[in-house]
Structures are given as C-alpha cells and as structure tokens.
Design brief:
Elements: E1 2-7, E2 10-13, E3 18-26, E4 33-39, E5 46-53, E6 60-65, E7 73-78, E8 83-88, E9 97-104, E10 119-120, E11 124-129
Parallel strand pairs: 2-11
Antiparallel strand pairs: 1-3, 3-8, 4-5, 4-9, 5-6, 7-8, 9-10, 9-11
Length: about 130
C-alpha cells in the first residue's frame, strides 16, 4: 500500500505562485507514475500533470501536462525525499480547485485517465483570487 500526502495549497492572488508537494510512503518502490489532478466545485476531477520514471534509477521517462497549464506549471521529482512537486506560476482564478496527487505502479501511457492510478491523496485546496 502507498500513502500520499499533499501539501502547499493555499490562497494566492492571480499572477502569483504556489508549489504543491506530494509525499509518498509505504510500498513506494513499486511506484512508476505520479500525477496531479484537480477538482473544482461542481466539476469532474481533471488531469493536470504527470510524470513516469524508470524502476531502478528513477530516471524520468516522460511528462505530460494539460494544455491549460503548459508553460505555467512544472512537475518535478525529488528521488531522495520521495516526493513529486508541482510548481504553479502565473496562477489564474480558473486554477482554483482541490488538487490531488495519485500514483500508479505502471508506466502509464494514458496519463490523463483517472482509472490508471492506484492510490490517491486526500487533496489540498488551491484558491486563486482575482
């Protein structure tokens, strides 16, 4: 079992930045893909960004972003700390949502699909004021 804990959410003005972190514990050696999703009130949970890595060296194989965050958000991994971060710059009010991290034991090709992920965190609120 893998436990995921998100942190770093908060309230920020439009144009500001936040850095979300997802800390993994438990059977993390089997994790191969981690993604960030978000869910705004009254809307379905949607894909934000994800990355996959190799099993042994943890070298990043691929990353993916939804179009609306490309150029503004960056996903990265800290192997030593076993965390994956989401740096969010130039935030917009439409980025307001609860952000969730999720992990899969596979190198996920279709990273946007919720069903590809095995474990989920509890979420962290991001609110962007205009």
């Amino acid at each position: 079992q893998v436990q995921l804990v998100e942190s770093g959410g908060g309230l920020v003005q439009a144009g500001g930045s936040l850095r979300l972190s997802c800390s993994a514990s438990g059977r993390t050696f089997s994790s191969r893909t981690m993604g960030w999703f978000r869910q705004a009130p009254g809307r379905e949970r949607e894909f934000v960004a994800a990355m996959s890595w190799t099993a042994i060296s943890r070298t990043v194989i691929s990353t993916a972003y939804t179009d609306s965050v490309k150029g503004r958000f960056t996903i990265s991994r800290n192997n030593a700390a076993n965390t994956v971060s989401l740096q969010m710059n130039s935030l917009k009010p439409e980025d307001t949502a609860v952000y969730y991290c999720a992990v899969s034991n596979r190198v996920v090709a279709e990273k946007t699909l919720l069903r590809e992920y095995d474990h989920w965190g509890q979420g962290t609120q991001v609110t962007v004021s205009s």
